[in-house]
Amino acid sequence: MDFGLFNTWNALYEDGKVPWDPNYSGGKLLEEEAYVKNFQEIDAVEDMGWDYLWLGGGHFAKQASMDPQVLMLAAVIAGRTKRIKIGSSIHRPMLKQAGEELSERALPHERYAFDNLLLEDPIQTAEQVAIVDQVSQGRFIYGAGSRTRGSDARREHFFEFLDVMKQIWTEEHFSGFEGKYYNYPAFYEQYIAIPKPYQKPYPPMLLPVDSQESFVPMGTLGYRIAIGAGSSPHNLRGSAVLREDVKSYRKAWIDAGHPGDPTTVVRIPTLLADTQSEANRQTENLMSLARSYYAGRAGIGSTDAGAASPDATEEVNLFGTAEEVVDKIEVLREQFSTDEIMFEVNWTSSVPREVVMNTMRILTEKVIPKFK
Q1: What domain range includes position 328?
Q2: Which residues make beta-bridge pairs with 143?
């Protein structure tokens, strides 16, 4: 199995109290210090020999996540590291259907981005991804998603966005694209081109599943998927149903004739301690803060695919001692056919940094070696 750190460039506040903590007294966001702390985590997983780093984030929500430009941050980290693979989890292109309105569940920062930002262009995104892949010398995985829950049209739009990217990466001379949502003429001079990725024909793609309807299409199209081990916050289907969804995805992959074995990446909240009593104490503190984070939008909440709600996390998590977590990973491997775990060691950005680093140490010394 492979193991990665999931990081949203977590915020850091004065006195170590986040705004959704009942004891928060107005401490300011420490942006410069947060960069230092997050780079320490990146340097640590590189030195510890982990396999992947996954970067999440979104526009206009810096209370917990400070990563509005995941591809830019990936390029910076690619230049800083030498070995670890780097994935976007996720890059979310801004797409809109004609007359589309956001769901009432949309958070204020999501609504602001939807109402005011320009639409994303697949060719420009292809250029950016190619640069990150070149800087990293082939260590990049492009993870992307676009809130397709409940909308066949949005799903079709998103897949066409990816089709444009794949075509322009693979053609020596772009022959043009005619689709339902995107139309581009062929390049009309031989010198016109975009940067090609280091990996051929292009970097691996990982798509998080944000709806039950997406499992079969992603299997049919041959995309690798990422899931949350429990349920997404606004899609409370339960782990038993999720296991059946993964089976449907695997069957669709095989029925479509794709080579290799379809596997899944599991993102899951993670917190370890050296003793059971300390693990219980830290878990209790984290669950209390996480409930405040989600409750009544007093905190930020999340609608990201794979972001676990407190109820889902109580059901499925990697909390405890090293021995407990090893047993839980064995269950995840069996239930979801996973070949990789994204450890979310600062779930809801509510974990003290010393606890984050201790969790990473225990994973490195006592958990990961059991699966290598």
Answers
A1: 2-371
A2: 206
